[in-house]
Design brief:
Order of helices and strands: EEEHEHEEEHEHEHEHEHHHH
CATH topology: TIM Barrel
Largest sheet: 7 strands, parallel
Structural class: alpha/beta
Strand order of the largest sheet: 3-4-5-8-9-10-11
Helix content: 25-40%
Radius of gyration: 18 Å
Low-confidence stretches: none
CATH superfamily: NADP-dependent oxidoreductase domain
CATH class: Alpha Beta
Number of domains: 1
Shape: globular
Number of helices: 10
Number of strands: 11
CATH architecture: Alpha-Beta Barrel
Strand content: 15-25%
C-alpha cells in the first residue's frame, strides 16, 4: 500500500490528509471560543507529516481559510492546500450552491487573499449549482487555471456523467464525494476515478455515527489489531483503493494524533473481508 499519491502528476501528497472544517465554531459557523486551538491543531498536523489540508470558502464562512493562513503562513515547502468555491452560507447557516461564473471568480479571488497565496494548488467546485449551466461553471474554473490563479481543478459532489463532462473542458485531478465504510453510494465514482488515475477525497470519511456499533466486523478487527474503530475505518479506506485520500477532520489534538496513526495500520485479507471489502 503506497503512502503517497501524485495529485495532477506534480504534487506528491501523503494519502492521509486533514480536513480543517471542524476548527470553525459550532455548526461550522464563525470563530470557535478557543482562538488558540486551531493553530495548535494545524501545526501539529504538519508536524505529524500531513501535507494535504482541505478547506472551503463556506467553512465559517471564510473563517477556516483565515485560520489556516494564521497558523501556517509562510507555508512549509510541499504543503498542499485544497480549497473550494461554488457554495456559500446564509445567516441561518444554510448551504447555498452558487455556480455562476462571476460568483466562482469572486470566491477564488477571496480564497487567494485569505490564504495569502498567489496560486491555489487544488481548487474544487464545492457542488454543481442549479443557477448556472454546469459547463459554464467549469469553464470559469478552466479560465482561472489558464490565468494562473489555480494550479489544478477538482470537483465535489458529482456523478460520473458530470465528471466526464467537466473533463472535456479542463483536466480534473480530484473528486470529493461522501464515502466511508458504512456509506459506499459513490462506489461507482470511486471505481471510475481509480480507472482514470483521479484522486478520490472521501468526505465524512469516518461515518462517525456508526463507529460505536462494535458488534460487527469493525469491533472485532479493532480489538484484534489493538486499534480504535476510527483507525480501522480510516485504514480500510486506504486499503480499499490506491486513489483514496481520506481527509478526517477534528478540533481535538488527541483525535488528530489517533487519526494520523491509522496510516501505519495494516489490515489483513481476513480483516478486509470482515469489513465487507
Amino acid at each position: 500500500m503506497r503512502a503517497t499519491f501524485e495529485l495532477g502528476g506534480d504534487l506528491e501528497v501523503r494519502r492521509l490528509g486533514f480536513g480543517a472544517m471542524r476548527l470553525c465554531g459550532p455548526r461550522i459557523l464563525g470563530w470557535p471560543s478557543d482562538s488558540g486551538n486551531a493553530p495548535r491543531v494545524l501545526r501539529r498536523a504538519v508536524e505529524l507529516g500531513v501535507n494535504l489540508i482541505d478547506t472551503a470558502l463556506a467553512y465559517g464562512p471564510e473563517v477556516n481559510e483565515l485560520q489556516i493562513a494564521e497558523a501556517l503562513h509562510p507555508y512549509p515547502q510541499g504543503l498542499v492546500i485544497a480549497t473550494k468555491g461554488g457554495s456559500v452560507r446564509d445567516r441561518a447557516g444554510a448551504w447555498i450552491r452558487d455556480g455562476r461564473p462571476e460568483a466562482l471568480r469572486e470566491h477564488c479571488d477571496g480564497s487567494l487573499r485569505r490564504l495569502r497565496l498567489d496560486r491555489i494548488d487544488v481548487y474544487q467546485l464545492h457542488a454543481p449549482g442549479s443557477n448556472a449551466p454546469f459547463e459554464d461553471t467549469v469553464g470559469e474554473l478552466a479560465r482561472l487555471r489558464e490565468e494562473g490563479k489555480i494550479r489544478h481543478v477538482g470537483l465535489s459532489n458529482v456523478g460520473i456523467e458530470q465528471l466526464e463532462q467537466a473533463r472535456r473542458i479542463v483536466p480534473i485531478v480530484s473528486v470529493q464525494n461522501r464515502y466511508n465504510l458504512f456509506d459506499r453510494s459513490s462506489e461507482d465514482v470511486l471505481t471510475h476515478c481509480e480507472r482514470e488515475g483521479i484522486a478520490f477525497l472521501p468526505w465524512h470519511p469516518l461515518g462517525s455515527g456508526r463507529l460505536d456499533d462494535l458488534g460487527g466486523g469493525l469491533g472485532r478487527v479493532a480489538r484484534e489489531r489493538g486499534a480504535t474503530p476510527a483507525q480501522v475505518a480510516l485504514a480500510w479506506l486506504l486499503h480499499h483503493s490506491p486513489v483514496m485520500l481520506p481527509i478526517p477532520g477534528t478540533a481535538s489534538l488527541a483525535h488528530l494524533e489517533e487519526n494520523e496513526a491509522a496510516g501505519g495500520l495494516s489490515l489483513t485479507d481476513e480483516d478486509l473481508a470482515a469489513l465487507g471489502a
